[in-house]
């Protein structure tokens, strides 16, 4: 889902692949020039899905045809009805596998050329896809009694999924998948509570490949319906130039404020989170503009990279679309997607508020100003000229609120995006009297959007397929219940300790792994432990979802932070530490909504929700003051503790804690006011000066 939305209308993806963002070469406060940012190189370095071959000539045409066929299949089934799981999911997976083998090299050395092995693997994928579709009913009726040919096909299929996932997604999820796969066979040799009787190879292959509980399970099912369409929606939004529009809107809203570019980065990333599911893509996309601006203004390089990385990571929890894992959560918890999005509103608000507040306090502490009036566009002029770009997002929200399925909502959003872009294009074409040429260009832009959407879905499809191995292992061996019992036992039945162990598990599993796969693993292994201790199902799943996401900015493997450091030419580890500090809300809020589910709008009303939001926002102000050591003036350590305790009590949504927290906040601010007045009081003439 690495959708980079930073180009102006008319720029093609191929041009973006080749063009460095040369306009962003600026001089920082330290006098050092920030080199040109090459989007393609950064994405390939920090985002495995972006390290693909870029063909020319006949191979480029072949790839385009396959991708368009993939997009056509998905749109056709979304419009006229999805096939049975035994057809829809294998066809979806086979398209993704073929594109993976043709686009992604087995080794870096072969990145520039297609090898014979790649072609053989792609053809093997096609053969397996045909076998699955042609024999769909025979396979269904002889479930559990598979022939030798069935098992050979299944074994090859599992191998193809693992190899393609290694190429596209990376080693971490592959290693985890292989461990789970081996656990099915060697479980009888494992001592302790993880032991099981073990299963023969034919049973493992049959369960993993031919049932809807393994590779073809729920994760791939969601990828083949909801997720693909929302990725396609993002591709069509990208075509409209909405990325630059988001940056302009953020500039108009926050550019003049203290530390303007940093606040622009926060707002832009929140907006981009609605159309992109990749922390790295968000960081590189908007960061190519905002990070050099922050450094020019006077922010330290590590801080500038961290702001963009933290805010971009939060984009995955930003309603209404959120990251792909939210669709999986809807299926796993049997909760309507609109309820998932509604539950995420307050935590997402707190996440971005926390970063925004910290950025503001940092700017005040260091005396950083905003951008000049000449650099800032007019908000109303922007809305008048390009406000129509919000209509596709409004259409998605409307359909979800009306109770329509995510599939229908995404399809309606795609049609709306095409419609508004077509009208805007016609207006321009008529004014310029270039109707024919402009409409031809519009047509090819739509074709390119279809291709980009299909290519963007490859990584998610493979991550979901690999995650299906984990799900299949859990259903075959009962590992989920075993792990739940083990975690609860390890924590001595204490909820807080169980939450802590679950957080660590999610962060470790999330290092270098996509959020979708991370969520599947933690939701099937760790979430049951929380549910066993009485945590509401949605709160338990949201807990692991959040920590799976923030793994992208948590050292030592913080890919989004490393991407931000790459743009800022900063120390990657220090950038990760700063990003973790900025995203403190993401580490605190999940604990609070587990203990007080009203933060997730569970069993509460709007009046209560407003009170909770106000209290939590005030709490984030206090937490920001504590972490920055500044509110009106600098804070000594004991005052920072008062701010921190008051902030935590305000975030906790009960009335009593809100009152105590508000009292501590007022007391801390009073101390700040008194000390600031003392500093501003002039020394009487003739008095001794210490």
* Helix-strand makeup class: mainly alpha
Average pLDDT, to the nearest integer?
A: 82
Strand content: under 5%
Radius of gyration: 26 Å
Biggest sheet features: none
Number of strands: 0
Inertia-based shape: globular
| Subunit organisation of the chains | single chain
**Spans of at least 5 consecutive residues with low confidence:** 1-24
Straight-line distance between termini:
62 Å
| Helical amount | over 70%
**DSSP helical segment count:** 32
Structure in a nutshell:
This protein is 71% helix and 0% strand.
Write the layout of secondary structure elements.
Elements: H1 13-18, H2 39-46, H3 58-80, H4 85-103, H5 116-134, H6 136-141, H7 148-168, H8 171-186, H9 201-209, H10 218-239, H11 242-254, H12 260-272, H13 279-297, H14 301-314, H15 325-333, H16 337-343, H17 345-366, H18 379-386, H19 391-401, H20 406-432, H21 435-477, H22 479-490, H23 495-509, H24 515-525, H25 527-532, H26 537-550, H27 559-568, H28 572-582, H29 584-595, H30 606-628, H31 637-651, H32 655-680
Helix pairs in contact: 2-13, 2-27, 3-4, 3-10, 3-21, 4-5, 4-10, 4-21, 5-7, 7-8, 7-9, 7-21, 8-21, 10-15, 10-20, 10-21, 11-12, 11-18, 12-13, 12-14, 12-17, 13-14, 13-27, 14-17, 14-27, 14-28, 15-24, 15-26, 17-29, 17-30, 19-20, 20-21, 21-24, 23-24, 23-26, 24-26, 26-29, 27-28, 30-31, 30-32, ...
Description:
It is a single chain. This protein has 690 residues and is an all-alpha fold. Among the domains are: 51-179, no CATH class; 604-680. The protein has 32 helices and no strands. The model is unreliable at 1-24 (pLDDT under 50).
């Amino acid at each position: 889902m690495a959708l980079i939305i930073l180009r102006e209308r008319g720029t093609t993806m191929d041009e973006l692949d080749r063009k460095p963002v040369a306009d962003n070469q600026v001089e920082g406060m330290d006098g050092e020039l920030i080199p040109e940012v090459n989007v393609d190189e950064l994405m390939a370095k920090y985002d495995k899905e972006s390290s693909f071959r870029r063909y020319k000539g006949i191979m480029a045409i072949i790839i385009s045809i396959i991708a368009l066929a993939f997009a056509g299949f998905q749109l056709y089934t979304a419009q006229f009805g999805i096939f049975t799981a035994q057809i829809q999911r294998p066809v979806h997976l086979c398209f993704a596998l073929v594109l993976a083998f043709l686009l992604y090299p087995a080794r870096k050395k072969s990145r520039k050329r297609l090898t014979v092995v790649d072609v053989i693997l792609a053809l093997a994928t096609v053969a397996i896809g045909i076998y699955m579709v042609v024999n769909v009913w025979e396979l269904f009726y002889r479930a559990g009694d598979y022939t030798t040919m069935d098992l050979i096909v299944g074994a090859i299929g599992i191998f193809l999924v693992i190899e393609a996932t290694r190429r596209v997604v990376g080693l971490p999820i592959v290693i985890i998948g292989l461990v789970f796969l081996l656990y099915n066979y060697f479980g009888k040799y494992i001592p302790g509570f993880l032991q099981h009787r073990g299963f023969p190879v034919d049973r493992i292959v049959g369960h993993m490949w031919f049932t809807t509980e393994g590779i073809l399970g729920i994760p791939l099912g969601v990828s083949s319906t909801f997720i693909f369409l929302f990725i396609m929606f993002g591709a069509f939004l990208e075509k409209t130039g909405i990325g630059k529009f988001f940056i302009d809107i953020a500039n108009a809203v926050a550019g003049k404020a203290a530390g303007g570019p940093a606040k622009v980065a926060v707002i832009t990333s929140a907006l981009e989170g609605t159309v992109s599911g990749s922390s790295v893509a968000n960081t590189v996309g908007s960061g190519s503009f905002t990070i050099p601006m922050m450094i020019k203004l006077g922010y330290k390089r590590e801080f500038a990279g961290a702001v963009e990385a933290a805010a971009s990571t939060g984009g995955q929890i930003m309603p209404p679309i959120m990251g792909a894992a939210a669709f999986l959560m809807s299926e796993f918890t049997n909760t309507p997607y609109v309820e998932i999005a509604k539950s995420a509103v307050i935590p997402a608000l707190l996440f971005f508020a926390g970063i925004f507040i910290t950025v503001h306090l940092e700017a005040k502490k260091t005396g950083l100003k905003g951008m000049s009036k000449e650099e800032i566009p007019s908000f109303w002029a922007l809305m008048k000229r390009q406000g129509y770009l919000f209509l596709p997002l409004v259409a998605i929200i409307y359909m979800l609120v009306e109770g329509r399925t995510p599939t229908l909502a995404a399809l309606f959003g795609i049609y709306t995006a095409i419609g508004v872009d077509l009208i805007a294009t016609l207006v321009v074409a008529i004014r310029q009297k270039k109707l024919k040429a402009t409409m031809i260009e519009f047509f090819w832009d739509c074709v390119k959007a279809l291709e980009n959407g299909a290519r963007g879905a490859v990584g998610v499809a493979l991550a979901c397929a690999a995650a299906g191995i984990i799900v299949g292992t859990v259903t075959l061996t009962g590992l989920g219940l075993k792990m739940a019992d083990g975690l609860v036992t390890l924590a001595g039945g204490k909820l807080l300790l169980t939450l802590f162990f679950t957080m660590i598990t999610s962060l470790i599993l999330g290092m270098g792994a996509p959020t979708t796969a991370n969520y599947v693993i933690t939701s099937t292994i760790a979430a049951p432990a929380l549910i066993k201790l009485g945590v509401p199902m949605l709160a338990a799943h949201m807990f692991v979802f959040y920590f799976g996401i923030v793994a992208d900015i948590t050292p030592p493997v913080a890919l989004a932070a490393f991407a931000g450091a790459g743009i800022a030419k900063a120390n990657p580890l220090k950038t990760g530490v700063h990003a973790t500090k900025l995203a403190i809300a993401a580490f605190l809020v999940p604990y609070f909504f587990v203990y007080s589910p009203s933060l997730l709008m569970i069993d509460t009303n709007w009046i209560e929700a407003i009170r909770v939001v106000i209290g939590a926002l005030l709490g984030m102000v206090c937490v920001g003051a504590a972490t920055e050591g500044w509110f009106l003036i600098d804070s000594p350590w004991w005052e920072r503790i008062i701010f921190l305790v008051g902030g935590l009590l305000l975030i906790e949504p009960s009335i009593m804690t809100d009152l105590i927290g508000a009292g501590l906040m007022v007391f801390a601010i009073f101390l700040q006011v008194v000390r600031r007045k003392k500093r501003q009081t002039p020394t009487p003439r003739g008095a001794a000066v210490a």
